[in-house]
Amino acid sequence: MLIESLSLTVAFLAGLTPGSPTLASSPPPPVIELTPAPLVASIDEERVPLIARKVAWCESRYDGQAKNPYSTASGYFQFLDGTWEWVTGLPAPARDYPYTVQLEAWETLWDGVDGARHWAPSEHCWSKDRPWN
Q: Is residue 60 located within the same domain as residue 113?
């Protein structure tokens, strides 16, 4: 019912009438389902290591769409575009990818290539010993 109502409203605003062939043959609009951000919905030590949760909180407050206004950094872990492309081989920005891909890229850097150096500017936040979400 809501979709039909929205379709009629859109058609009316576009100047179409209920008998017009364009309105009759138009497919219904897509249904958009809103779900919570996967990282936030599944924060637990079994799925996401504590240090990853700390860094993601400090860098983006668990917002996978976060974008730094002063650099190309984006995503949960605030990957710079160049670093993202180098580590993953995928086109930037990081925020265009689901948390599983961002987490895998984070783990690649954290565990292998210079570890925490990439997140040194926020170390004052994630290195603290306090309760984490």
A: yes
